[in-house]
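Hey, resending since the last one bounced:
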Amino acid sequence: MSHGFCGIDFGTSNSALSAGLSGDTQLVPIEGDHVTIPSTIFFNVEERRTTFGRRAIAEYLDGYSGRFMRSLKSILGSSLIHDTTQIGFDRVSFQRVIGHYIGHLKTNAEKSLGYELPNVVIGRPVHFVDDDKIADQRAEDELRAVATAQGFKNIEFEYEPIAAAQDYETTLDREELVLVVDIGGGTSDFSVIRLSPDLKNKPDRFKDILANAGVHIGGNDFDKRFSLASVMPEMGYKGFLQSGLDMPLAHYHTLATWHLIQTLYTQKNINFVNGLYREAEYPDQVARLVKILDDQSGHELASRIEGLKIALSEDTSATAQLDFIEQGWAVRAKRTDLNKAIKADVTKIVDVAQETVTKIANIPAKNINAIFMTGGSTGLHGFRESIQKTFPDAALVQGDRFSSVAKGLGLSALRKFGAATQS
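The structure tokens again:
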């Protein structure tokens, strides 16, 4: 079998893969006809199988017994990576869980292409972990170890915003100074880079990169803030006990955090929340929290809130139906509610974007010709309005929210490995 190369965008929320054999690259279908796949995995205990992506979500929502996991990338660099989690009668390390997912991407891509992919460029955020270089390097090393265990032989890394810039560069007919903004599920990353059609095949772009920066805030944080502001108060969040004491908040914060939800489903936590129900000033609200833990439906709740957030990108108001928790229960929200909930996070993201240009690259904001945006959350009105206000002279260019990075990583893989695969 022939040996090719690929670029993998292992995202917090979605993943994609671009590959080639010689002088070209293509996005590869890795879930049916889809070139993107949700970064989800479901260990179906009833059927004794492991499923991924959309099928994993469907089986979880269909009510099969098992463990559903999402936002696996958020575990890299954290203390959880070497911990184990209960799956059926076994305990499995989180590193092994991530390996299952990366291996699935590789295997499906190779089946689709008909050739092996031993050479890979993997996208990485500018910072896996903010303000901790040791933990950040540890996260990259962990991801390298996972890729090696799945059969990749030659492994390189590329900053995700730089990969996105290379995808944008293929569309240009003149030189531009570009701020690339990549808002993923777990991180927001920025690069200031000089792009030109005359430079796109240049093997070393180091001198064209004027700045890189990032912050560990992304779409999942928006989901959390919005959930705590919109739904959790109707489940007892920030309420009171009959004694007059404040309701404990930790379980609500965990329930609103994608990669921590599964940690709630222990008998100890269920007993604790049942105790809150008996002591709550408004037990009917806390009964909804009890129901979610009993049914292990926290990820379904998070999905409904995420869907509400996405709907508010298109409409000024929307409704999340929550009747799987309580018959007739629904939460209606306005776009202004969402913007208020995520305002502090958006402000921090935009501040880092501005610092990337004016302090790290040391150039005036007015010199930026275009802002190339990728990642699902770049579609939020609150973000787009804030970034345009900060860079009023720059054109806003929306890339493919879910595959621009993968396309760029494929181009990086072509430059790094293309000659070797042709020899």
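The radius of gyration is 22 Å.

Sorry for the duplicate.
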